[in-house]
Structures are given as structure tokens and as C-alpha cells.
Amino acid sequence: MDFRVEPDQCVACHACVRVCPAEAVAVESGKVRIVDEACTRCGLCLPACPHDAIIALGDWERAYEFACGGAATLILSVESAVHFYPATPEQVVNACYAAGFRTVHRGVLGDELVAREYLRAWTDDGWGTMIRSTCPVIVETVRTKYPELIPYLAPVATPIEAEARYLKQLYGAATPVVYTGVCVTEGGEDVDAAITLAELSNLLVRRGVRVADQPLHFSRVPEERRRHWSTAGGMPLEVLMEERQSSRRFRKMRGLGQLEGLAQAVAVDRIELGFVDILPCDGCLDHPLIGPKEGLYWRREIVGATEPVRARAPVLEDAVADSVQVGAVFPIIRNGHGAPAEAVELVLAQIGMAPNGKPWDCGACGYATCRAFAGAAALGRTTLKSCPPYLDKEAQQAHQQAAVDALTGLATFRVLRDRLATETARSSRTGETFVVLFVDLDNFKLVNDSFGHEAGNEVLRGTARECSALIRTTDLAARYGGDEFVLVLVRTGLPGATAVAQKVRAQVEALGRRMGYPDGLVTVSIGVAEARVGPEQEDVLVAADRALYRAKQLGRNQVATGES
């Protein structure tokens, strides 16, 4: 089975990136794709995608050809009772026969084969820790992320692999075996085609078979009795009856997140845990392909109601079962495709450290640590768009850039506008006044034309420094635009503000002389206006601008007030 992203549906929201435990989702130039070699087929990305952009694909075309050929045998998972509800299991089996399958099995044979193998291992002493290996998602996750646990995997095939081997032994090695279920990676190479239950529905439609039209009783004698001494997934009933849930020899774990602690306990702390029954979810009825988590108990109710009574007679033919190899080998595969160290460090530098000087490691991106996220980002499997601390830093920098003029270091016009509104509201509320100084360089164009734009920039920076040096921390100095500046002096009357304006004028004139410019070239004219409370009062910035115009008319290098 493969998982694919439909490009037309995907909006690169990164929801799949955050839930993928295998780091198998790549984000490149705003496009999302599944990395096949890293994907463990856990299916968590399907329900996580809010846009239904991820689909699961089995070997539908091959399965259809096998059904048309009439020689294939089908392994039909018990979860089919939920998928085809309200049709009965008898109707589903009859429909599969009508579609052309030679025989239909329900997964019982594989469960019995695997249970028998586990029972043999259970009776042996000295194995210390044995991890159930009948779930391909667990096996692939162990192989790719926790290779130190591979020696502890029980050397037992999955039930579907075992059943496929049994059926080929029973009907002939050339018999095509098709499996349909929710975890369609279980069969491995022993299954000739694996399809989802949704694909089985499509196959039946294409073959002109309606499940609802099938008889309510089996039209053919079932190929097998129900399991006798095993449960779904190949767990021996004898083991479950013998060991309590709190047994030190039998441990039940659910969720891929348990593997990290398991690896620590077994490979580092050297603790013997006994038989570890670990699955990524609460069985196949909890698999993402069968439905949402909140419907788990409803699905269990349906399967429980449709399960037939257990048989007391054996379901395996000993002569066939003894010739079937149920063992499995899990080689360690090292792909060598780790992210370059320098690329990882570059991503970490972009994220930055938390205020305490340590990595953020907040997990909000879907990765346990910043370093794990950086490794995935360096491989193109995620982007900094998924990192909240990085986005927060970017937002703060953007806010700072919007608030501070890059050339002069003064506040921007946006900040000035907001501050004037705040001071006007405060003045109306308290009756306290404030004054605005409108500052304009008199001959700035001449400086640019005669000495160059970089020289003009130095004059702007110098003028900004002089303005900042002559005001209090409670006041505001802003660049209005071009060669114009505005100073807002709070809790200040017109006489005091005029004195400040004269000092600014004198300091800028002295700055021009220090910079080596001819006398009178670098000077400023300043308009001063006091804000007053009242509905008829003119905008204080407009009044200061008009006073500035008056200062220019007086011959420049002058200070003028709105009352002059």
C-alpha cells in the first residue's frame, strides 16, 4: 500500500507533518509529498489532513485481474463487517465469491499459525524480552528509528504472511493470494495483491456485484471455522488466560510513542520486560483507514455481534501447517541518508535558543526536539513554517522593522501616528497638554546633489542623533519621511518646547560644521505647535507643519510657533 498526496486538494497546512511519527512527509516549495522509503504506512496522516488530500492506494488493478481470472483466493479481514455495514458478513463473503474469487478466507488460519508459533516461544525459558512482531507498522518503526530493538522482535511473521504461505501450500504455489483489510502492508511479499476495503467495494461494483443483493446465508460452505485457540492478530488464548494484565511477564502497550521508553528500558537500562504486546493503535478496528477514533466502540460492537461461535475442532490441517514456515527475519537497514551536520546547524541557528539559553524543544512542530526538527527540515521533509518559536521571532522582527526606521533608528510614521492618537486621547481625558516639533532640513537636496546620497544619509543619521539626545525617554522622536522629523514632547508647554527646538536647531547647525560642510548648508527649520483640548481645535501635526512653513519664510534655520 502507498499513501499519496492529491496536489489539487493539498494546501500545505503541515497537519500531516505534525502527526507523522516516521518523518516521512516532505515539504518542498509549498508542495507536500510522502517519502515512500521512510513511510511506515501507519496511516495517521489520513485523518489528520483537514482537506482529504491524502489517499491510500493498494494493488487494485492486480486484484481486479486476479478476480477476473477466477483462480485467486481472498483473505477478507474481519473489519469488513464494519466497512460494509449494514450488509451482513455472509453477504460480503457471497459477494466476493460472485466477483470471481476461488475461495474466501477470514484471516483465521494465519492467526492460528502465528498463535501456535508464539505459544512455542512462550513455553521456552530465557528469552527475557520478546516484542510482538505481527504489526508491520511496529516492525518498520523499530527498523528505521529504534534498530537497537530489532534483536528483541519475536522472529514470527504477520498472520497474513503466514496465511498466504499456508494457502499457497494448500492450493498450489501458483495460486494468487489477495488480501483486503485496513493494514494492507501485513502480507508483505507473500501476498500477490493487497487492497483496502474501499478498493474492494470498487472491485465489486466493477464486477457488477451488489453486496445488498446477496443471500443472507452462505451460498457456499465457509472455507474455515472460527479461531479456536487464538485471538485476532495471533495472540494465544492460553497466554491471555494465564497472565493477568498486571503480569510482569506480559505487558500490553499501545501507541508508537511507547517505543522510545521501550528502547530505553531494554537497550540501555537492560530491563527484562517479558512478552511485550505493542501495537500502534487499539487493533485494526482503531486503524485510521476504518474510521474516526470516536467510532471505535461502535465498530467493536458490530464485529462482536457478527463474530460466529468459536469452533472446538482444529482449524488447521496439521500436514499443511507443519510445512509452513512462520518465522521471520528482521535485518538492520542503514540507509545513510541523514541530514548533513552543517545544514542541521543552520536550521537550529535560524530557530534560535529559548530565553533560558537552551533549545526550545516545545514539540509544537510535531518533533520531540529542535534537533530532530532541524534534521527533517534539512532533508526537505518540513519547513520553518512549522516552527512556532521561529515564526514568533520572525513576527517580532517584522514588528520591530515596522516600528523603527532602518536608516535613522527613530520611530516610523506608523508609530508616530499611533502615539499622536494616544496622546490626544490622554490630553482630552486629563487636560494635560503636549507639544509637537516639526523638523525639516533646509538644504538637504543640495547636500545630496553636491556630495552624494551617502553623505546625505550621514546628515540624516546625525540629525536623528541630535534630536534623540535632546528629548526625554517619555517623549518620541520619529522620522516623518525624507528629510523631515517630528518630536512629540509630553506634559510640556509651549515655552519649554520652544527652548528644546532652539537647542535642536543649534546642535544641527554645529553638526554641519563638525562634518566639514560650509556654514549654513546643514541647518533645520522647526515648527512648534501645542495640542489643545476642544472640538474646534486644529490637528496638532497640521498646526506644527504650518508653523514650519512660517519658519522657512523667515529665512530658514529658524524656530516658529503656531502662535507667531
Short structural description:
The chain is built from 21 helices and 16 strands. The protein is α/β, with parallel strands linked by helices and 564 residues long.
Would you give an account of this structure?
The protein is an alpha/beta fold and 564 residues long. It has helices spanning 15-19, 45-48, 60-69, 80-83, 89-98, 108-123, 136-145, 159-171, 197-206, 237-242, 258-268, 296-306, 318-321, 341-351, 370-378, 388-403, 413-430, 444-451, 453-469, 494-514, 540-553; strands spanning 2-5, 25-28, 31-34, 54-57, 73-76, 103-105, 129-131, 177-181, 193-196, 250-254, 274-279, 434-441, 476-481, 484-490, 524-530, 559-561. The strands form five sheets. A five-stranded mixed sheet has the order 13-14-12-15-16, sandwiched between helices. It has a four-stranded parallel sheet with strand order 6-5-8-9, with helices on both faces. Helix 6 packs across helix 8 (159-171) and helix 14 packs across helix 15 (370-378).
